[in-house]
Write a structure and sequence with these properties.
97 residues
Length: 97
């Protein structure tokens, strides 16, 4: 069963990568398939068709999706830590902490 996690930011970024992927299929200096795969990865919790597309990618390259999901989790953790540190420094700077 698929879990939907609606997010406007993820939708915008995912569609941007899909657009770059389609353009990259025509232009020689962009890796079209890579951008399409990234767009599907980002949109996998937004749309059912993207979730199915990621299933195809996972069958084609077993283990690659798990590695990217692990990397995504680490990046989200680092962003949260950086945000918490920034909030703490801002509070100290303005005397509210």
């Amino acid at each position: 069963m698929m879990e939907f996690r609606p997010s406007l930011t993820r939708k915008v970024v995912g569609w941007m990568f899909l657009f770059l992927g389609v353009v990259g299929l025509v232009l020689p200096f962009l890796q079209g398939f890579l951008f399409i795969a990234l767009g599907l990865f980002i949109l996998r919790h937004q749309y059912l068709w993207a979730h199915r597309g990621m299933g195809w990618v996972e069958r084609r390259w077993p283990g690659a999706v798990a590695k990217v999901e692990g990397m995504e989790g680490r990046m989200i953790g680092r962003a949260r830590d950086a945000g918490a540190g920034l909030r703490l420094r801002t509070r100290r700077l303005f005397g509210r902490g």
